[in-house]
């Protein structure tokens, strides 16, 4: 099974890249970038998040998020509200004007999913998702409990031997 590891990573990374490109292209139909769509989607799931929380969830720098939020505020899709317990903190909320767009983006998400999963049965899809959850858990565990670094001799053997 040694070659399948390389094939797996290549297939996973290439699939993710293509999905991201496709989502970016489709988001433009609504005058949004995929990054803006991601912010809106996070807020739809959990309104009232702090900007720093969204930056962490999306794994982007706070300054990058600030620019995205500024643009979404300018479009009238989200609003900043002061935190009741800390005036330095802004919490983010979707505006009422964003609600119809979120319904359209929900349909777009379904279209993207249907396109990506075309040719797979419902059972195949459930199995794929379950298997990806296992992969995700394995990687999360490896991040939380990394294996010890190889000794120099092991590294030398694997590199040259």
What topology emerges from the helices and strands here?
Blueprint: H1 2-27, H2 34-45, E1 49-50, H3 51-58, H4 62-74, E2 78-82, E3 90-94, H5 98-116, H6 122-144, H7 152-160
Antiparallel strand pairs: 1-3, 2-3
Helix pairs in contact: 1-5, 3-4
Strand content: 5-15%
Strand sequence of the main sheet, in spatial order? 1-3-2
Main structural class: mainly alpha
Average pLDDT over all residues: 89
Q: Main sheet, how many strands, which sense, barrel?
A: 3 strands, antiparallel
Rg value:
20 Å
**SS elements, strand count:** 3
What general form does the structure show?
globular
Give the count of helical stretches.
Answer: 7
How far the N terminus sits from the C terminus, by CA atoms, comes to: 19 Å
Which oligomeric form is depicted? single chain
Low-confidence stretches: none
Helix content: 55-70%
Order of helices and strands: HHEHHEEHHH
Account of the 3D structure:
With 161 residues, this protein is mainly alpha-helical. It has seven helices and three strands. It has helices at 2-27, 34-45, 51-58, 62-74, 98-116, 122-144, 152-160, and strands spanning 49-50, 78-82, 90-94. A three-stranded antiparallel sheet has the order 1-3-2. A hairpin with a 7-residue loop joins β2 and β3. It is globular and about 55 Å long. It starts with a helix and ends with a helix. The mean pLDDT is 89.
């Amino acid at each position: 099974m040694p070659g399948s590891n390389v094939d797996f990573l290549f297939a996973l990374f290439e699939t993710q890249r293509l999905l991201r490109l496709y989502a970016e292209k489709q988001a433009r139909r609504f005058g949004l970038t995929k990054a803006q769509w991601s912010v809106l989607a996070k807020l739809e799931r959990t309104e009232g998040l702090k900007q720093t929380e969204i930056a962490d969830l999306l794994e982007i720098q706070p300054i990058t998020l600030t620019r995205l939020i500024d643009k979404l505020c300018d479009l009238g899709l989200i609003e900043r509200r002061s935190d009741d317990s800390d005036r330095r903190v802004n919490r983010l909320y979707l505006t009422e004007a964003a609600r119809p767009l979120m319904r359209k983006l929900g349909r777009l998400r379904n279209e993207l999913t249907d396109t990506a999963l075309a040719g797979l049965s419902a059972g195949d899809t459930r199995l794929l998702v379950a298997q990806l959850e296992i992969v995700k858990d394995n990687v999360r565990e490896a991040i939380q409990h990394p294996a010890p670094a190889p000794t120099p001799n092991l590294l030398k053997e694997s590199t040259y031997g």
